[in-house]
UniProtKB/TrEMBL annotation:
Organism: Rubinisphaera italica
Gene behind this protein: pabB
A molecular-function term among this protein's GO annotations: 4-amino-4-deoxychorismate synthase activity
InterPro entries: ADC_synth_comp_1, ADC_synthase, Anth_synth_I-like, Anth_synth_I_N, Chorismate_C
Protein name as catalogued: aminodeoxychorismate synthase
Coiled coil regions in record: none
The enzyme's E.C. designation: 2.6.1.85
One Pfam family per UniProt: Chorismate_bind
Keyword Nucleotide-binding part of the UniProt annotation: no
NCBIfam families in alphabetical order: pabB
């Protein structure tokens, strides 16, 4: 077989290994910083792809996956027993604005944090952590290694040596202190006015729901890696991620939300709708969760998005296969409680994961219902690109499996500054002031400390 599995005895955590390899081209870490038995079993790190694609802006009617689709078919291989869902293949970023390729939407101004519509690499190796068995191993895909054997071996030895150097001396990163950045009165007023406008659209019958966001920006004098190391401590998440395809921007995520998963052609998406902040006291925190579960408003909001996603994946799934095995279940994270549902289906025989992305992107839980009209209203009210926020980071294995997150709780880094968008769904009985408070709760644990307030101990 083309895959070679190499067990490693290195005692490096995913973030420690990323520290050693972050200077390689296009590093990407998909980390289960919050391990659960049913989810978050694996973390993946890779870098130095054999081929890359970068699309600055998407055009309606184009197929952004055309070349990737051809290479997927060319290098397709069966899944091997005993290996993780991702071994080698395509990893990268689909920004929110990639949706312009699939739907005709208004053009909005780009801001300085705007990321490419798509940035994807084809990777011939991965470093994998199995958090269930506590194993770490490297996987090489020889079918993708187009360089000469000597060059390939030299590259491989370079990567291994970096990891071994890290094993000899691991830096201890200090625990950062949570911060808050108080919104200005102008920011608050702008959000409240936009929320009120969404309510007017709902009352006029244009939409049932729209996801409205606002952006927090602050100075940060550390690297993108410093930012990731802080965020994963402040807000551990099952879909934590780091991606830096170029020197002057990176995406750092503490997302709790799975977007699309495909294994053996079985599709699963897990939308989050409904949020309450965590409380420190045990009984009060329990009450918060129970109150969320009992909230008719939050359950209705979740149900609307479930119906939307059922419709989206039905476009590429077999008739009768789309189900809702879980609906409005309570899940608790570091800073908030959420209501989470699950929609599943089976891909049609003539459909692939790229067709699935085209049918569902961007995700329904961060747009609204009806989806296209909600996206038009979002463009009108937010008046700037979302970039990585509400897009997806994904890993598509050459066996046809797919793991992807929805980029909420996500920061975009550039030298000296960070942007943190936060938002929530507006429905008929939403109260703008409460929705604004929810964005404040969601930003808790995402505002990292300036590096000059921290010292690194050897």
């Amino acid at each position: 077989m083309s895959l070679e599995r190499v067990p490693l005895k290195l005692k490096l955590s995913p973030v420690e290994a990323l520290t050693q390899l972050s200077d390689e081209p296009w590093p990407v870490l998909l980390e289960s910083a919050r391990f659960e038995k049913t989810r978050g079993r694996y973390s993946y790190l890779t870098a130095d792809p054999v081929k890359t694609w970068k699309l600055d802006q998407a055009e309606f009617g184009s197929d952004p996956f055309a070349e990737i689709r051809l290479l997927s078919a060319q290098y397709s291989r069966p899944a091997e027993a005993g290996l993780p869902p991702f071994c080698s293949g395509f990893l990268g970023l689909l920004s929110y604005e990639l949706g312009h390729a699939f739907e005709k939407l208004p053009t909005v101004p780009r801001d300085e944090f705007t990321t490419p519509a798509m940035a994807v690499g084809l990777y011939d190796w991965s470093l994998c952590w199995d958090h269930l068995t506590n194993e770490t191993f490297l996987i090489r895909d020889h079918s993708l290694q187009s360089a000469s054997k000597s060059d390939t071996e030299s590259r491989w030895q370079r990567l291994l040596q970096k990891l071994k150097n890290g094993n000899a001396s691991i830096e201890q990163f200090p625990t950062p202190s949570p911060r808050t950045i108080e919104p200005t009165s102008a920011e608050r007023e702008r959000f409240l006015n936009s929320a009120q406008r969404v309510l007017e659209y709902i009352r006029a019958g244009d939409i049932y729901q729209a996801n409205l966001s606002r952006k927090i920006e602050y100075e940060f004098d550390g690297s993108a890696l410093d930012l990731y190391r802080q965020i994963r401590i402040l807000n551990p998440a099952p879909f934590a991620a780091y991606f830096q395809p170029v020197d002057d921007f990176a995406v750092v995520s503490a997302s709790p939300e799975q977007f699309l998963q495909v294994n053996n052609r079985q599709v699963c998406t897990r939308p989050i709708k409904g949020t309450r902040p965590r409380w420190a006291a045990g009984d009060l925190d329990l009450y918060q969760g129970l109150a969320l579960q009992a909230s008719e408003k939050d359950r209705a909001e979740n149900t609307m998005i479930v119906d939307l996603l059922r419709n989206d994946i039905s476009r590429v799934c077999k008739t009768g296969s789309v189900k809702v095995p879980r609906w409005c279940e309570l899940e608790t994270f570091a800073k908030v409680h959420h209501l989470v549902s699950e929609v599943t289906g089976e891909l049609q025989d003539d459909a692939d994961i790229w067709d699935l992305f085209a049918a569902t992107f961007p995700g329904g839980s961060i747009t609204g219902a009806p989806k296209i009209r909600a996206m038009q209203i979002i463009s009108e009210l937010e008046q700037s690109t979302r970039g990585a926020y509400c897009g997806s980071l994904f890993a598509a294995d050459l066996s046809g499996s797919l793991q992807s997150s929805l980029l909420i709780r996500t920061l975009t880094w550039k030298p000296g500054q960070v942007q943190v968008p936060v938002g929530g769904g507006i429905v008929a009985d939403s109260v703008p002031e409460i929705e604004f408070s929810e964005t404040v709760h969601k930003s808790a644990g995402l505002i990292a400390s300036p590096m000059n307030h921290l010292t690194t101990e050897a």
